[in-house]
Design a protein that fits this description.
heterodimer, A: mainly alpha, 15 helices, B: alpha/beta, Rossmann fold, 2 domains, 6-stranded mixed β-sheet, 4-stranded antiparallel β-sheet
Amino acid sequence: MIKLRLPGWARLPRQPLLRHLLFGAVGVAFFYVLSISLSDFNDFQLGEVGVYAIAIAGLSVLTGVNGQISLGQGAFLAVGAYTLGELEVHQSINLVLQLLIAVAVSALVGLIIAVPATRLRGPYLAGMTLLLALALPFLSDKYSSFFGGDQGLITLPPNAPGSIDPQRWLTWIQLFCALLVVVLLANVLSSRFGRSFRAVRDNEVAASLAGVHVARTKVIAFVISSACAGLAGALLVLSTGVVNTGEFPLSLSIYLLAGMVLGGAGTLTGAWWGAILVVYLPNQWSQSIANAFHANHLVGANLAVIIFGAVLIVVMLAAPAGVQGGLRWLGHRLVTVSTGPKPAGNISVTLQDQPVSKQDRDGPESDRAATSID
Amino acid sequence: MSDASTDSLVLSDIGVTFGGLTALDGVSLSAGSGEIVGVIGPNGAGKTTLFNVICGFIRPDSGTISYRGQAMGRHQPHVLAKLGIARTLQGVGLVPGLNVVENVMLGAQGKTRSGFASAVFGLPRSSREEMRLRAQALELLGELEIAEHAWKMPTALPYGVQKRVSLARALIADPTLLLLDEPASGLSSDDMAELGQLLRRLRDRMGVLLVEHHMDLVMSTCDRIVVLNFGRVIASGDPDVVRADPEVTRAYLGEEVRTAEGGPGA
């Protein structure tokens, strides 16, 4: 295969942080252009994509990278949302602080849950987290004076500076937070923590003999995931204007898990694909399909679930590594085709199969497939 | 024998039972730095159980373990790396989701210093440590003559190469004691000869405790040999003494020691 050598300035920086910040900056520019060319309603949905991308990225670290299945991500969104709601009621601190507190509270709740939960495996962990998602509405019923009962808590969108449209300002905040979270998670995944997450997922015995504290590693992944969900929940209710349990049904947790798998488990770019599916599939696409067949809107609502299941089956058959995995495979195919035939019998390993040159020796370039933003 | 010097691993009177089955019964042995100690015995003699007790996967019902004069009570496996003990697993025990370099770097987990905050924010403290570890891993892979496989995924590699990767992962921790669980199983005779040379080189840097079926390797590299059968030590001493021991010969079903258990290990 012809190995393309790019000039120095055109290569990605070797420092993971710089590389991830570069991706982040590209994301900021992209979403800025996208949002100013969209209408108000599309702005709202774009912001939602950012919010769900945060929740799914966290879940992707927990499930895709660390191998712990959680069906309770929605519950942690609710924790962040209610925290923000309570803070709004007392209405005195600024938004950044509110969001940080929401993250801290959901991380703390995550920690309390994680210590027993991470001792469970596979279906048992899924069952416990499922219980969490189910138990939530009862909690808000029982303490309705604190949680605002059925009505829930009212939240106000943040004040936009100058003449910027408030909805657009909120969308920017949501997208900026999402990009920030993805950059920070990419940092974690390319560090020794990312390595131990994967090691614990694949081989606990080998990981522990290498000096990885297996239980602590699982707890860290769980707390990361719940902190992300908390931030997502807080950002979500800023745009919906109300915090109540109806916002966080069990189906949300399942959508997030399905979106994570569809986008590409364990990849952070995949979280964006998953978020797009979670936002547009149940609301818009299924409704337009229902309209196309002149069915009433109730059919559209139920169609969402069916379509989600169908898409899940199709994607798993066509691209078991999700949308991102499929794109990566496709991109690799195109590169291979354009640079001529490869030696036979080497196809399955080519993704990681890079010769070690002097320049690559201490460079993280070659492990990008496993550790970087994609 | 078990002279409890301060720089060795000392097991005294270890007993383990699973249900009614006695897996280890009053086993005592020591392994110090600068020596290669072999543990041999027929299948089911308790060799791997012994390793699992040392590593904290199995709690002994009786007996004590100490390393460098420090008692190891109810220790967990990950503590071992910090104490300077590294272990390779039977088979290969690599992490399929990490490439070869990352697998090797994983072994250095016990000596990493950078914290979670520096990882989240990608601070130089964390990334410099990563770069140093990566360079170290590549150097080790070069030493073991598998540098060209550095960026491949382990499952795509020949068995012998995978074995070397797992050895590199143990060595990157700079252990003072290396526990090898059947390092020669499945290796070609050339690879095995190289392994023998490597073990003798390692002796200058660390102690080695070796569980192995291949008698040629054990007899030619070990300074001392401990023979287990049915969970009990039936003989120990230098290779010539053990080879001549009638009970050892009997344990191997009356065959001559040299030819017994020649095939790839379980």
